[in-house]
Amino acid sequence: xxxxxxxxxxxxxxxxxxxxxxxxxxxxxxxPDGRAAYRDGHVPGAVYVDMDTELxxxxxxxxxxxxxxxxxxxxxxxxxxxxxxxxxxxxxxxWNMMGAARAWWMLRGAGVPDVRVLDxxxxxxRDAGLPLERGxxxxxxxxxxxxxxxxxxxxxxxxxxxPGHGVLLDVxxxxxxxxxxxxxxxxxxxxxxxxxxxxxxxxxxxxxAGPAAIRDAFASAGVQEDTPVAAYCGSGVTAxxxxxxxxxxxxxxTVYPGSWSQWSHTPGRPVATGPA
Length: 276
Hints:
Order of helices and strands: EHEHEHHEHEHHEHEEEHEHEH
Shape: globular
Number of strands: 11
CATH class of the largest domain: Alpha Beta
CATH superfamily of the largest domain: Rhodanese-like domain
Largest sheet: 5 strands, parallel
CATH architecture of the largest domain: 3-Layer(aba) Sandwich
Low-confidence stretches: none
């Protein structure tokens, strides 16, 4: 199944009366709380999802900046969002589909069979001339049952060993990978053996590139169809975006959710710098 849906397709589903749960996952580094923007205008029927409290459990810096929440916590959040068995889910945001990709990756891993991301996000919806709704949406509690995210997720030890049998992608900006700057975490650099492939290479004018272009980008980092590939970023959000790009291109990408924010807070973990 295509993990993306465009604005016209989503609008057609909604106009036809097809049950679909839309999630607004607005989050950016410079604006982590997107609730005010959500209330000012969102896709009709969309429920706001809080990245920091519902798609992560922020507590100990040693776990990283966006560690995965517990299953009970994610289950509670999903039911607040009104998720029901058999009802497809569409996530979107207003920042290159980063937050939406995190929701997609987690829900898919937790057992939601039909979850997609609005390609182009809220900008694409607006550009199509489609209406917005103001205020909060509070659906009836959902009954969907999730399970632990036990596939496609890597631990810190998995990430350390990954370059020995596959390709570990560092999907941050090149200057952060090289260790020239680090605005958020205590140490600059990258996991030894990781290859830099910034997440932005998969986008064209705010939407995902086609499958062939994405496969070419992965190939430039040494990833072929049978290559085990994992991705990390600063805190595990952008890495999920790369996993979504992989899904668009037919590639399975494992995510290391602790990412550099966990690695750099863990004593004894080696750090590499430079372009290679």
